[in-house]
Amino acid sequence: MRNNSGFTLIEMVVTIALISVVLAVAIPKIDIDFGYMDKMASEFVMDVRYIQTEHMKVADSNHEIKIYKNTNTYEVRQNLNVEKVVRFKERFSIMYNNGGTISFTNTGTPINAGTLTIMDKKTMETKKISIVPGTGRTIILE
Predict the structure, then answer these.
(1) pLDDT tens digits for range 75-106
(2) In whole angstroms, what is the distance from residue 16 CA to residue 10 CA?
(3) CA-to-CA distance for 17 and 132, rounded, in angstroms?
(4) How far apart are the C-alpha atoms of 116 and 112, rounded to whole Å?
(5) In a designed cystine with 76, which of 3, 25, 49, 84 is the match (CB 3.0 to 4.6 A)?
(6) How far apart are CA 115 and CA 109, in angstroms?
(7) Do the Cβ atoms of 88 and 35 come closer than 8 Å?
(8) What pTM was computed for the model?
């Protein structure tokens, strides 16, 4: 008589298949856009601070941020020269509540202070970036 103390190939395949199914269901899906709104909010704040600084360095600076909510983009411009274009992913929308242009005086005071809202259309989560009137301080609101 033979002593068969091992597993058969079929038993091994069935066990691996069951473990695979359980793991596929149990592990949550990882969102590719995790942290995207935080990254884009920080980039917008840096761009606002950049144009504010340029206005304070040069009295007649014509730096501005032009926001296009229909295409979910904004441009950092000096006069008519586009220095930078930022496009948000299709899943996100942007809206600025005080017109479509952000600029500053030579003292750093915002001309069109307001709030930029970034919204994730899938989860309906929002992130707001506020430019404070009078001081020009830029704040990311949670």
Answers:
(1) 999 988 999 999 999 999 999 998 889 999 99
(2) 10
(3) 58
(4) 11
(5) 84
(6) 15
(7) no
(8) 0.77
Average pLDDT value over all residues in the chain: 89
Question: What class has domain 36-141?
Answer: alpha beta
Instruction: Print the SS3 string covering the chain.
Output: CCCCCCCCHHHHHHHHHHHHHHHHHHCCCCCCCCCHHHHHHHHHHHHHHHHHHHHHHCCCCCEEEEEECCCCEEEEEECCEEEEEEECCCCEEEEECCCCEECECCCCCECCCCEEEEEECCCCCEEEEEECCCCCCEEEEC
In this structure, what token pair is assigned to residue 105? 């005086």
- The reported pLDDT for the residue numbered 115 is 93
Q: 33-37: long-range contacts at Cβ-Cβ below 8 A with a sequence spacing of 24 or more?
A: 33/89, 33/91, 33/120, 36/89, 36/92, 37/92, 37/118, 37/120, 37/125, 37/127
How many angstroms separate the CA atoms of 79 and 88, rounded?
23
